[in-house]
Amino acid sequence: MSDPASRPSRPSQLHDPHLSGVCSPKPKVRDLPPSGRKRIVMLLKRGVLLQCPYCSQGHIIRYPFWIEDCCPRCGYRFAPESGYFVGGYALNLIGAEVIGLIVIIIILLRSNLSLYEQEAIGIGAAILLPIIFFPWSRTLWMALDLTLQGDAHLEQEKHAADSRQQAD
Length: 168
Ligand SMILES: [Zn+2]
What we know:
- The protein is 55% helix and 2% strand.
- By secondary structure, it is mostly helical.
- The chain starts with 16 loop residues before the first helix and ends with a helix.
């Protein structure tokens, strides 16, 4: 057994899932085009189907409110930085409120419900829609982010892999 004091200090490895082995990137199984219309369509489709944006692996959401750290197939880290999904919360709020407002307006215009019943439906929609929409807010946020930023997060992954190789 080696003396821990004699080992080189690598504190950053403690906090980086790529270096700690939590995520094992497998770029060869990723089939997302680097740019263009096809990329946007694939990202949107995969977001709607709750799939990994890079390889279309499903089952990345652990219900009710948790997403895997990394894709089990291609190793893409879904939250490349702390606070990444704050945008997803905003997307969820906007989406749920817009859909809720449309539903309430339709109910108000087309039904003979009492005011009490309309309020109950409106309050129920305001509470339930953000919960129901939550998984899609994560995957659609990734789709939006990867559309706007391209593959910038993969640079971090490459850097981590290079650092790991140098450390070995
Ligand atoms: Zn994947």
